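Hi R.,

As promised on Friday, here is the backbone we talked about, encoded as structure tokens. Could you run it through your design pipeline when you get a chance and send me back a sequence?
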């Protein structure tokens, strides 16, 4: 996509920048800064965010190295850049807040996305005390934790198998307006990850067996195999189905429900659930 194609949209956008050194709490306070300036859209570490929803992009915090993180955050690659530009054209924001570690970084992001020059710079020192920044930096350095300003459920697919913890804070939209709860997420990126996060195959088996018991068309799960892949588990199931049901529809429904349940309970992105029907069970007739 040519940046000129959204010229009419970008001319109407007012761009704000929120700047501070890495690990000082920018993402944590991004919602506060956006709320105070009546901004609904954020660009943070490769993500284009509307309030609590990821609209486009992939988190740079998932990159394997710090160098790749910076490249992704700056939207160097055309594919990453074009996805954000397309979203900007679709949603037509009047204001955007860009987060970055320096003035040059946020300017470069705005330039790469074809946005207007930055109208206002806001610095972490404007909204956080030296003690608060020192605490944030210590947590980053000792525990490797990063904050992403969206709810945890928004990140499960991108961060399959990573540690994700919800972080709930109160936010206010102004004087006289009741504060509301906003959830952010704490993650440990690849390059600072401490230890391994694994889930026993028996956990997946127990979940699908539980789901089978709730499915009227599935008699039982006869076999389960879990292959652990980089992007998440691949689950193979052999089931016995009840006679009298549309097998194709019943298996597809069971597959989708099982996949959803596993992802919700484990915070992992399931690559695929393959189901093979190995037998048919005739329901026992009820005694008259």
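Update: got your reply. Pasting your designed sequence below so it's all in one thread:
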């Amino acid at each position: 996509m040519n940046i000129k194609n959204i010229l009419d949209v970008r001319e109407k956008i007012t761009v704000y920048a929120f700047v501070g050194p890495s690990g000082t709490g920018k993402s944590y306070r991004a919602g506060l800064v956006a709320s105070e300036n009546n901004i609904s859209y954020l660009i943070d570490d490769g993500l284009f965010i509307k309030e609590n929803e990821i609209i486009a992009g992939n988190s740079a915090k998932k990159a394997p190295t710090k160098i790749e993180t910076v490249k992704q955050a700056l939207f160097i690659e055309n594919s990453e850049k074009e996805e954000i530009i397309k979203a900007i054209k679709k949603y037509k924001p009047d204001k955007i807040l860009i987060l970055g570690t320096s003035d040059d970084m946020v300017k470069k992001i705005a330039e790469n996305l074809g946005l207007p020059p930055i109208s206002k710079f806001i610095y972490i020192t404007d909204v956080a005390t030296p003690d608060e920044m020192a605490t944030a930096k210590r947590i980053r350095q000792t525990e490797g934790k990063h904050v992403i300003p969206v709810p945890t459920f928004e990140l499960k697919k991108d961060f399959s198998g990573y540690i994700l913890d919800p972080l709930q804070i109160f936010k206010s939209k102004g004087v006289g307006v009741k504060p509301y709860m906003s959830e952010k997420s704490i993650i440990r990126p690849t390059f600072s990850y401490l230890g391994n996060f694994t889930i026993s195959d028996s956990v997946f088996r127990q979940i699908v067996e539980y789901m089978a018991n709730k499915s009227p068309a599935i008699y039982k799960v006869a076999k389960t195999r879990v292959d652990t892949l980089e992007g998440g588990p691949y689950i193979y199931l052999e089931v016995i189905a009840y006679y009298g049901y549309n097998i194709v529809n019943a298996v597809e429904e069971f597959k989708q429900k099982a996949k959803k349940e596993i992802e919700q309970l484990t915070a992992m992105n399931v690559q695929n659930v393959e189901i093979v029907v190995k037998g048919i069970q005739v329901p026992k007739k009820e005694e008259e």
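One thing I noticed while checking it: The CA atoms of residues 240 and 266 lie 25 Å apart.

Thanks again,
M.
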